[in-house]
Specification:
The protein has 88 residues and is mostly helical. The protein has one domain. It has one helix and two strands; from the N terminus they run H-E-E. It has a two-stranded antiparallel ribbon. The longest helix is centred in the middle third of the chain and has 37 residues. The radius of gyration is 22 Å and the shape is rod-shaped.
Length: 88
């Protein structure tokens, strides 16, 4: 059941309105985190497809977070995404 609570600006919200607002905020945060995870997974898949069969001279890191995306192996050739999942 989707219920929208409208209240005047500056008016006190009752307990029911606060509970609904909190649950909506939690649902929105979960959706945002899921979308971010999906985009990161897709980015890694594309990187692996682009670099498959290529030699890595060093580990590949995310510019912003510095998380390791691809790990340089002994033979330095990217074979598949599964073998090179991101690590922190």
């Amino acid at each position: 059941m989707d219920v929208k609570i409208f209240s005047r600006k500056g008016a006190e919200k009752d307990e029911r309105a606060k509970v609904i607002e909190t649950s909506q905020q939690g649902r929105l945060e979960k959706n945002l985190n899921d979308e971010i995870r999906i985009l990161q997974d897709e980015r890694l898949k594309r990187l692996c497809a682009l670099l498959q069969g290529e030699k890595l001279l060093a580990d590949l890191h995310d510019e912003k977070t510095n998380k390791r995306l691809l790990v340089k192996a002994r033979n330095s050739i990217v074979r598949s995404c599964r073998a090179s999942q991101p690590t922190t």
